[in-house]
Specification:
Strand content: 15-25%
CATH class: Alpha Beta
Largest sheet: 9 strands, antiparallel
Shape: globular
CATH superfamily: HIT family -  CDH-like
Helix content: 10-25%
Oligomer: single chain
Number of domains: 1
Radius of gyration: 17 Å
CATH topology: HIT family, subunit A
Structural class: alpha+beta
Distance between the termini: 33 Å
């Protein structure tokens, strides 16, 4: 779908069906922003060149664009569709495992976090530090690894590399992991809670379960 957006853009047309396509850093370093067919305001951030998914080795190189940072910046498109501002702890970015993806292209979902997940993370955040640790509670029936990350907008760090380098064995089997970044505040400092889950190949692994396509949290925080 993002390549259809690019074809329109090269003809100096609006990048339909995408909301926008940023190729300011080059055609092979861009990000397309597309409204998902599911959800009230869910958006997809998609590289403008071929990146197969979380398993793609290119994501672990310093030369690859920071797709999580682009996805976080795109939360304004979610807010526009909801017609309301979202506090950072109401927004989550998710990437599914290779087992859960039916497309040969990386995309990051930007959407509201599920209200129950938000409540669990708010209660649990005091137990987090900058090391990956297995949580002692489940989120949507799954036991996640979690860590805190102090960063305003993810522009200074790659969650993909933090996962690969921070959990033993993850780098060799990135396709078996789902990954999420949830906005947070730590003693007044803006940051994120990173969540990762290793899946069984036959069981799937949908980090998007942490999100709420109806965005109920937006109504509760308005």
């Amino acid at each position: 779908m993002n390549f259809k957006c690019l074809r329109h853009l090269t003809k100096s047309e609006a990048p339909i069906p995408c909301d926008s396509v940023d190729v300011s850093a080059g055609w092979d370093r861009g990000v397309a922003l597309l409204k998902d067919s599911e959800g009230t305001a869910r958006m997809l951030a998609i590289p403008t060149h071929q990146v197969s998914g979380i398993e793609d080795p290119a994501l672990l190189t310093p030369e690859e664009p920071n797709y999580f940072a682009s996805a976080w910046a795109a939360r304004s498109a979610v807010e526009w569709r909801l017609r309301r501002h979202l506090p950072r702890d109401a927004v989550a970015i998710t990437v599914d495992s290779m087992a859960a993806s039916n497309q040969d292209q990386l995309f990051l979902r930007i959407d509201c976090i599920d209200k129950d997940v938000a409540a669990s993370l708010a209660s649990y955040s005091g137990a987090l530090d900058t090391d990956w640790r297995t949580m002692t509670v489940d989120l949507k029936g799954r036991r996640y690894w979690a860590r805190k990350l102090v960063s305003n907008d993810l522009s200074d760090v790659s969650p993909f590399r933090l996962l690969a380098d921070g959990i033993d064995g993850a780098k060799a089997e990135m396709g078996l992991w789902s990954l999420a970044a949830v906005g947070a505040n730590f003693s007044g400092a803006p940051g994120f809670i990173l969540l990762a889950h290793r899946v069984e190949p036959t069981a799937g692994g949908h980090a998007e379960d942490l999100q709420d396509r109806d965005c109920a949290i937006a109504r509760s925080k308005s």
